[in-house]
């Protein structure tokens, strides 16, 4: 699970400026490039659930 604090810390190490933070979405300004990162926890959880279900079905 990605924590907001550690994520921001990584951005600082990369020399990125956190422009704003809203709804688990970060916008960074890295070396003249705008980087937009979103964490949709629900979608990620759904993907994990689907893949786990698929793994079980494949094994049986």
Concise overview:
The chain is of the alpha+beta class and 60 residues long.
Helix content: 40-55%
- Provide the domain count: 1
Task: Tell me the fraction of residues in β-strands, as a range.
Answer: 25-35%
| Low-confidence runs of at least 5 consecutive residues | none
Largest sheet descriptor: 3 strands, antiparallel
Strand pairing plus helix content: what structural class?
alpha+beta
Give helix and strand order, one letter per element, not per position.
Answer: HEEEH
By DSSP, the count of extended strands is: 3
Distance between the termini: 29 Å
Arithmetic mean pLDDT: 65
How would you explain this protein's 3D organization?
This protein has one domain (4-59). The chain is built from 2 helices and 3 strands; from the N terminus they run αβββα. It has helices at residues 4-13, 41-59; strands spanning 17-22, 25-30, 33-38. It has a 3-stranded antiparallel beta sheet with strand order 1-2-3, covered by helices on one side. β2 (25-30) and β3 form a beta hairpin. The radius of gyration is 16 Å and the shape is rod-shaped.
Task: Describe the secondary structure blueprint for this structure.
Layout: H1 4-13, E1 17-22, E2 25-30, E3 33-38, H2 41-59
Antiparallel strand pairs: 1-2, 2-3
Task: Record keyword descriptors for this entry.
single chain; 60 residues; alpha+beta; three-stranded antiparallel sheet; 2 helices; 30% strand; rod-shaped
